[in-house]
Amino acid sequence: MNKFLGVVKSHTTAVSVLAISVSCAIVCGNRLLQAQSPVTTTTAAQADQALLADFRHVEVASVSDALEQLTGKRMYMSHRMHALFTTKFAGLARTVLLKKDEGNTDPNALSGMLEAIDQGSIDSVYVMVVEDGADIAGMGGLMGTAMAARGYTGAVIDGGVRDVAYLRKIGFPVYATGIVPSTSVHHYRFGGSQIPVNCDGVTVNAGDIVAADSDGVVVVPRARAQEVLKLAQQMDYKEHSMYAVIEQMKSIVEAVKKFGRL
């Protein structure tokens, strides 16, 4: 009887040890798999892409209204800023300044302007200020081709633009204050890039969000982008909901009372 009990006890102990060993193996195996599995993290670039995608789905007018409510400032460009064709985009500002330097013969006077283009990438918006440049083309077909090749989302020029037919042909979005056939060569020199500029009355810093559509161009300070987007989305929802209500009730007064949006 004692021998039998001893055998049972030994068998039970062996089973327990085996169970513990298997459990340890499973736990260790899981930890090893977790260690080997790639950790999914959201990079800054991915976060920017998601943010820009959201801005591309809201109306620029709503973004402008949201900015005015939150900052009390005008952050939209004036009626002088026109698109070469109907477009809609949002991207991160890459700023460039050209300073007037009449009659200069320096072959490298504008090299920095071209280098600034080559330093940009996908989702960049080329924001150029041409000092007193209403009748000077800040960019044309060659620069537009380079921007398009690098994945720029568009360009905003406080000054003129030329080679318009070609820019329309390749479908590269440009906003400018005028169309002129002139050149900046021998008239201007590079004044800096990725610096604060005043573009058609609006301060633009490198990395700010520039959004544009048929209503014009607006600039969103990067630090306030999330709260501006949230409010603009709410405004969009209300406005788009109002169209059907106005048609049904045949009254804009009642629709405004209902949604509080104008």
Question: What is shown here, in short?
Answer:
The protein is α/β, with parallel strands linked by helices.
Walk me through the structure.
The chain is α/β, with parallel strands linked by helices. It has two domains: about 40 residues; about 180 residues, Glucose Oxidase, domain 1. It has eight helices and eleven strands. The longest helix has about 35 residues.
CATH architecture of the largest domain: 3-Layer(bba) Sandwich
Secondary structure tally: strands = 11
Number of domains: 2
In CATH's first tier, which class of the largest domain applies? Alpha Beta
Segments where pLDDT lies below 50 for 5+ residues? 1-30
What characteristics describe this protein?
262 residues; alpha/beta; Glucose Oxidase, domain 1; 2 domains; 9-stranded mixed β-sheet; 8 helices; disordered N terminus
Secondary structure blueprint with pairings:
Layout: H1 2-36, H2 44-55, H3 60-71, E1 82-83, E2 89-100, H4 111-118, E3 124-130, E4 137-139, H5 141-149, E5 154-161, H6 164-170, E6 174-179, E7 188-193, E8 197-199, E9 202-204, E10 209-213, E11 216-220, H7 225-249, H8 252-259
Parallel strand pairs: 2-3, 3-5, 4-5, 5-6
Antiparallel strand pairs: 1-6, 2-7, 2-10, 8-9, 10-11
Helix pairs in contact: 3-7, 5-6, 7-8
